[in-house]
Task: structure prediction
Amino acid sequence: APMRSLSLGTRLAFLNEAIKVERRSTAVKTAYALFERMSASQMPPRLSDLLATDLPTQGVYFFFDETEATQFSNIIPRLVRVGTHGVSAGSTATLRNRLRTHFGTRAGQGNHRASVFRLHVGRAIIERENLQERFPDWGKGQSAPREITDREAALEARVSQYIGNLRVLAIPVIDSAGKSSMRATVERQFIAMFTEHLCALESASPNWLGRFSDKPSIKETGLWNVRDVGEQYDLKFVALLEAYLNKNGYR
Result:
């Protein structure tokens, strides 16, 4: 009786949490089934290819790493990042613009000071390869003089290559910008579904680049996300999302 020494209240709290983890696992399985439906049971396109297609003006995007397996799907690789765009009130940013900022240019360059995703990926490369002395200004400031950006160009190119090779899906969610918008809610709930209480339901492989991140939340959850990681998940969310997508003709 492993809980013999615990109070009844503590036992019940533990058991309720265990039940919720199981329900979250079911929700994650449903989410991967949704991803399979979105991709027509095929491997999602790489970001570099997706940007050459028509995209909804607004939406929530999902990055997958094809070198990472998941127990929840034989088609879709493991989810490694969730994001959206322009959730500040009055923002006019589009989904394409946000994905383009993450990707950089076709020539392989980019600006990690405009993309926290790029910042995290580059920092993980620095930590993995002990490049701190070579790139001492990585992530410092919202802008940098030409001398610094020229020195960082080689690393920016590696970040572009990594992100450009990731697989991507996007859910169209058209609404007004704001922290309480549907897009912000979908992003927040997906992150919470996978990471509530920092109890990740999927494990990253030992060689996954994020394992070398300086952010404990990235290392522990397997997602290139920091904001909203570990937050409380609403068990009704996936069912509500499916109903929303079906209502808007996304089947």
The two ends are 48 Å apart (CA to CA).
